[in-house]
Amino acid sequence: MHEMSLAEGVLQLMEEAAVAQGFSRVRTVWLEIGQLAAVQTEALRFCFDAVTRGSIAEGARLEIVDLPGQGWCMKCAATVPISEQFGACPQCGSYQVQATGGTEMRVKELEVE
Ligand SMILES: [Zn+2]
C-alpha cells in the first residue's frame, strides 16, 4: 500500500512549509490526484489521519481534487482523455497513447493558521 508513504510525503511537505512560512497549524489540505496516479483515495484518507496524529495537521480536513487523465495519441496527433495508464485512444482505439496528464499527486493549497 503506497498510500502510507504518500501521506507521509504530504505531512513532510506541510511541516517544511510550516517552518518556511511560520504557521503552526494546518486546517485544510487540498490534494490534487490524477486519475492515472493509481491512488486509492479512501486508503489515502485513512493513512493521512494516521500519520498526522500528533502533528501540525492533526484533525485537518483533506479535500481531494480529481484531475482527469490525459494522453497524447500518436495516431490522431491529438491530446485525448484517457482513464487508465496504457489505455486505448477513445477516438481511434490505438494503444499508441502516452500519458501526459493526471499521473501525479500534489498539494494544491493549504489553509493554515
Ligand atoms: Zn487516437
What is the topological layout?
Elements: H1 3-21, E1 26-34, H2 41-52, E2 61-67, E3 70-73, E4 78-81, E5 97-101, E6 105-112
The site of zinc ion (ZN) has 8 residues, from loops.
Give short descriptive properties of this protein.
three-stranded antiparallel beta sheet, binds zinc ion, elongated, 113 residues, alpha+beta, 2 helices, three-stranded mixed beta sheet
Average pLDDT confidence is 95
Distance between the termini: 31 Å
Coarse structural class: alpha+beta
Low-pLDDT residue intervals, each spanning 5 or more residues: none
What profile does the largest beta sheet have? 3 strands, mixed
Indicate the overall shape: elongated
- Tell me the fraction of residues in β-strands, as a range: 25-35%
| Radius of gyration based on Cα positions | 17 Å
Residues in helix, %? 25-40%
Number of strands: 6
Alpha plus pi helix count: 2
Cross-sheet strand order for the largest sheet: 2-1-6
Element pattern in H and E: HEHEEEEE
Bound molecules: zinc ion
